[in-house]
Predict the 3D structure of the following.
Amino acid sequence: QVQLVESGGGLVQPGGSLSLSCVASGFTFSNYGMRWNRQAPGKERELVAAISDAGGITHYVESVKGRFTISRDNAKNTVYLQMNSLKPEDTAVYYCNAVKVRGSGPSNYWGQGTQVTVSS
């Protein structure tokens, strides 16, 4: 059974930090690029950060550059999102997303999401 399980969300004050984790199971993690997306109330889901299958290439949406860092550990089937200097506009549900690079199997998997709330 394929699973992407996010954790680490919560309530934090502006300027604070949170570290999100997403543990994958049921598929070959190293065959997939990984992404963190978010969806704020009343807004469309947007890509926040992405990392290549081997971890050597990363991409960030402009609004989080310099504040967020995506990383992965293929030995642990886990992708991380370190979020620093958080702002109220970062409030959203954050979703982990696996996108197939090679091999067999479905092209996309999604987690259930974890809530991040930035508020004083």
Summary: The two ends are 39 Å apart (CA to CA). The longest strand covers residues 92-100.
